[in-house]
Write the structure tokens for this entry.
Amino acid sequence: MKQILILAYKLLVNDKGKYFALLVGTTFSVFLIVQMTSSFAGILTKASATVINIGASIWVMDPAATNSVLSNVPMPDYVLDAVRSINGVKYAVPLYSGTALVKLRDGTYQAVSVIGLDDSSLVGRPKLLEGDIDDIFAENGFIVVKDEEFPKLENPKIGTDFELNDYRGVIVGIATVPTGALYGTPTLYTTYYRAITYIPSMRFTISYVLVQPKADSDIPYIKQQVTRLGYLALTNHEYQNAISSYLEYKTSIGTNTLLMTIISFLVGLSICGQTFYTFIIENLEHFGALKAMGAKGRELVYVILFQAGFTALVGYGLGVGLSTLLITAAKLRLPEYTSRLTYTNLSLAFLMVLIIASISGYAGVRRVLRIEPFEIFRG
Amino acid sequence: MPKAAIAADKLNRWFGVGEARTYAVKEVSFEANWGEMLYIVGPSGSGKTTLLSMISGILRPNSGSVAIDGRDLWSQSDDEIADFRLNTIGFVFQDYHLFPRLTTAENVAIPLILQKRNWGEALSAATQCLKIVDLADKAQLPPTKLSGGEQQRVAIARAIVHQPRILVFDEPTASLDGETGRKIVSFVKAEILTSKRCIIMVTHDSRIFEYSNRIMEMEDGRITGFQQGQTV
Ligand SMILES: Nc1ncnc2c1ncn2[C@@H]1O[C@H](COP(=O)(O)OP(=O)(O)OP(=O)(O)O)[C@@H](O)[C@H]1O
Ligand SMILES: [Mg+2]
């Protein structure tokens, strides 16, 4: 077995032109698939930025609000009290999440995301790079997140003031968060109370109720009770999934990514399938000669599958390497470059490359099994 | 009495179906002996290659039987027949069928590789055989860099590397000039034919008749006669 696979390897690799074309095909295809899915994964992570950054265990929201954290549906105050009284709830606090317009010193306006943290606990507070978290309670205090959108606010410093919906605001801290937001707006944190005072709102003001259960085992009961109230409770993970699946299945981002992935797959398949089949056809008389000399059909099948599989693995390695290189290089230049290699992407690309190899290999195997050594013998 | 190397009995092979059925080989019976170099001659289309294929385990006859050293060939399983080709037969194809992307030595080693011997062993045996055919210095070249006569000798080295007892040659001199052809066949006769071997050679080439022990003539799929070749 090993002996004939070495032969298979030599026959493949020594055919430099074909081997190169096969590698280019698989590498390119893997590269495209990984790029597409990674940038999509990056988008998904960013879309869940608020959920990730606030980090609460359970999010209570209006059932209509699961699509995106920026388009929440405000809930009345009694929901907060009702949730607090559920058995197994350690604490529950309100969170405000909305948008406002900031008037910059040069007179232009910039949209910002504003997050209002519960005044008494500041649950979900960001990590501060500069300033003191208690200053959030100071008059007009806002904390700005230093992310790639930060320059849009003209790189504010502590003490920089601005106008927000005709109210005065002052930067009292500069913070960092794990995940930058997708929407291209800078983020300001303030207290819940100040947020609802400064930003005009509808009758109801609570965007989310953040819940900490006493124990994980309390979660199902809490969810059930929230459902009874007519609201929806999702764990951090569930909420991220809900946002992801919305983007995946209900927006053009998801469909386009899917389409591009399928196209990359088809491009790879057609390049590799074609080249591999040509490779087999060109070597057909050699396979026939091997058969005549006493190679068994299944040995020739191993030879072909090995050749297809080997090409696939090398191409996969090169493709993933190339993607990693590119993403890393891009991130060095653009710190917030929206692309993320995940195990799911890598497995998906691997699966696709295996399918490409199987289809190409299958066509080759069928052809080779049909060779009659007699035809070779007759010349 | 020793068993015949090859005993063919009433071999038939036809192609096509119904009206279009034509016999390539019809009711052919003959024996070839160990230590013998038997030629098969006849006009184009007379069934020589078809016959050669049936006695070497490549083409299944429609009827009749082949016994190799007393053992019936075509009643064996496909795997056994493949093993028979691998272990008992050395093939020299008309157009050589050498692998252009392997070295000459690797080409010669192929039967041993198919026998699952390891590469080191196979390559040293191959180099040994290349010495026999006087091509030791070309071992590392691809066969495409060799002349026609040299390629033919590589094919012969490949056919003998695994020490098969029966060698089948189909038109080995067809693409060689007369002098080269004679040299190769006289070499085969002198160096490769032993009393434990049997060589069957299909040829049109009357210039090499002198090296045969016996010549079998075919026409329209039938044997029309035997001639004594050069007497040993
Ligand atoms: N696969 C096939 N299908 C149909 N007819 C075939 C096939 N193989 C051989 N034949 C026919 O069988 C006959 C004998 O063919 P074969 O190749 O054995 O002749 P040959 O004596 O080797 O001829 P040549 O000297 O030209 O090589 C020919 O008439 C040929 O057309
Ligand atoms: Mg012929």
